[in-house]
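Why do we bother with a discrete structure alphabet at all? Because it lets us treat a fold like text: something you can write down, compare, and reason about line by line. To make this less abstract, here is a complete entry for Chromosome partitioning protein ParB. Read it the way you would read a sentence in a foreign language you are learning: slowly, and without expecting to understand everything at once.
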Amino acid sequence: MSKRRVFDIDFEPDAGPGPEAETPPQPASETRRGPMAAAISENADALTERHSAEAEIRAENDRLAHEYVSLKRDGAIVARVPLGDVAMQKLTRDRSTNRDPDLEELKTSIRDLGLSNPIQVEDTGEGYELIQGFRRLSAYKSLYEETGDEKYSAIPAVLVAKGEALEKLYRRMVDENMVRRDISFAEMGQLASSYARQMDLELNDAIAVLFASAGRQKRHYIGSFSLLMDKLGARLQFPEAIPRALGLKLIKALEEQPRTAQQLNVLLEHQKPTDAVAELAVLNKAVAPKPAGEQAAPSTSSKTTIKLNRKSGAVKVIGAKGKIELQMNRDFGAVDPRKLEAAVRALLEQLDL
């Protein structure tokens, strides 16, 4: 068996740093990292930076979203809304749909100066619901129909955040028109009745909510016109033209003489007034004082008693709401039914009933 030889290798003495020794030595841990480890480390750092940036963007978006909603609720966001996207279904309007005599003046102002006060709408997600600005929206629609100018195809509007309480939306609409002081008692009364039905409230409670800023006397007038509109509203074509004094006279007549509502409805149906003047003439005639010598109809709110002396004996007649009584010493059950019927018919005809 041969033996291995051991050779001694003599290295030359260190000649000092050469050209390649100018770079300082790296730590052992760095010098041992391969290309794959370096790539993974760089990728992890990039992911960390990206996640941090995304978190900052989300936080900024959340802040802007909250600020946007807050601004919408405060009525500080204005946009141009296409006319066709504005609906009027959620709220019962407190404005008559009859021809507005001042609409032409509003249209002229918009043509010359533009719309200085945007309408107010609720963003429903699928469109917009009108809250304030019925006349302004009507003026824009009329201008677009007349001119075809695209600048009238969309209207400046303040956006209200979706889901605001219905009571607040009604109050917004009512308060705007009350400040302008040109809304009629009939329109306010009709709105109060509609709101009471929609919210399942008593009429007085509905008036207290909607017209909280009005005085006690004015709320009383609104209540009276609510009753008037409930009794005559279906026949009235120009209720917004009814003055306060005439409205109060009408409701008093309706309360004291229930047949007044039926008579007025017949007159309005027969005459079919074509304008406010003609309609007011019919209403004024219904409450005009009776000519001298004409027997006034007895009030149905109280009891009337009449005593008659006849050969057959004394007769006491009592008239009250919903009934007439004849009291005398006679068995009316023994009277021939045909004669009794004929007598009652004659009585009703004499009373025009």
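What the structure line is telling us, in plain words: The domain at 78-235 is CATH 3.90.1530.10 (Conserved hypothetical protein from pyrococcus furiosus pfu- 392566-001, ParB domain). The first strand starts at residue 78 and ends at 82.
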